[in-house]
Structure formats: C-alpha cells, structure tokens
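Worked example

This section walks through a single chain of length 183. The input is the sequence exactly as stored; nothing has been trimmed or padded.
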Amino acid sequence: MHSLTSAIGLSIEWIQPKALARAFELTDGTRTFATLNFEKQFGSLGRAETSDGVFTMKRVGFFNTHVTLRRDGSDTDLATYHPRWTGSTGELRFPDGRMYQFKSANFWGTQHQVTDAQGRVLLTLKSGVEDSHFSDIFKIQARLDLDTALRNNHDIAQLVVLVWYIMLLQHADSAAAGAAVSS
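Given that input, the structure is written out below as tokens.
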C-alpha cells in the first residue's frame, strides 16, 4: 500500500473492479493507495486499508444518524461525520476539535469537496473515471484530487476513506429512494 501523501498531484481514482462487489480501490492505475470494502452485501460496516492503518466506518443512529471512523478493532472514534438535514453536506469532526466541511460542489451532486476551517478546498471527488469503458456503466467510481495543503495534514488517510464511504452511502440511499418511488 502506497502513502496517500505520495498521491498528491497525481491522477488517482476510486475504482470498483467488479460491478456487483462492494469493494473499491484507490489507484493511479499501477499503485494502490487505499482499499474500502463493505463487510456485508447490505450492511453499513465498511473496512478501509491505507498505509496509515486499517479503519472501520459505520453509519449509526436512526433519526440523528452519523458516521463513525475507528481504527480496526477499537471502540474509540477517530472522527465522526454529522450530515445536515439535506444529507448532501455535513461536518467531519475529530475529537480534538478539528472540523472539516463536506459539501456538494455542483447542482447535480456529481462533485463533492472537503474544506478546512479556513475554507480551503482540500480534496475533490468527481463522479466517473477518466478512461471510462462500457463495462463501467454499473460501477460506482470517482476521480480524487488532493490539494497540496494535505501534504502535512495528518488526517489525509481518514479524510480520503471517510469521504469515499460517505459518497457510497449517499449513492446507496439514492438508489433505494429511486427503487421505492418506482414501485
């Protein structure tokens, strides 16, 4: 597994190797920087691996939902994501008080950003991959741009995997809502 800091400035993408598998890889085409897999086909427990360690993410709560990020095997939250009522924006909070904003960057919800307390965009996720193929039509994939401000940020691994996990939850929620409306 390669360091996410070494991916800054590169063209990297979250890819889904198999359309029906809930498994994803963050890659530049030759090197892997992170992986994220869901433990069960329909559960919300996700497990991510980076050069900084192995993390688990889970959506908890019913009316006041939030997402927790923990080191694998630990019960201590490293970070939490608290969505606003719209679900398309929210706050990523760390126990020591550091906060980041997660928000949609365009009307269609195909681009999302994470900004720091000063409003600087630290990372951007854009739906789809650069070199798309017909076989990708049923896959969930995105390009990831990491700003140079992340070079000395110790939260880079947690931000990258947590934001992708949030995007996957939003995609699943949208698909479930569409299925409910059509039936």
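What to look for: The radius of gyration is 16 Å.
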